[in-house]
Description:
Number of helices: 5
Shape: elongated
Strand content: 5-15%
Low-confidence stretches: 135-139
Helix content: 40-55%
Distance between the termini: 55 Å
Mean pLDDT: 83
CATH class of the largest domain: Alpha Beta
Structural class: mainly alpha
Largest sheet: 2 strands, antiparallel
Number of domains: 2
Amino acid sequence: MRCRICESEKSDDEFYLRSTGTRRAECKVCFIERQRIKNLGVCDAQYAAMLEEQDGRCAICCCALDSSRNTKFAVDHDHQTGAIRGLLCLKCNTGLGLLGDDADRLAAAINYLNTHQQKALGSDVKSVTQSTRGMWSSLPH
């Protein structure tokens, strides 16, 4: 197939499949760029500059993309102001989203992890279970 945007000849699997069973007229790369421009106002050149500024790594966990499935970082933005914050890997972007971009909720999650982190190597599952047993009894069923 030939992409209507970049006019490159590409294999069918490089075009998204519509629910009707037909392929989109633009390749996945062009489609993603157009969506990024439309939704966030970030073109490929701006994305590349951000990626270079972050040394090709996630702004939170500093991982590099090494998956054939996840080939681009997400452009993270403030959902209230629309301001672009940086590029994030799938896990970090999803984590922020699931926590509602709420710094207080994130701080509470960090506190939770620190509180329940194993204090010494060799702690067994039984001691962890005993320390959390009362926590669940007060929850409604």
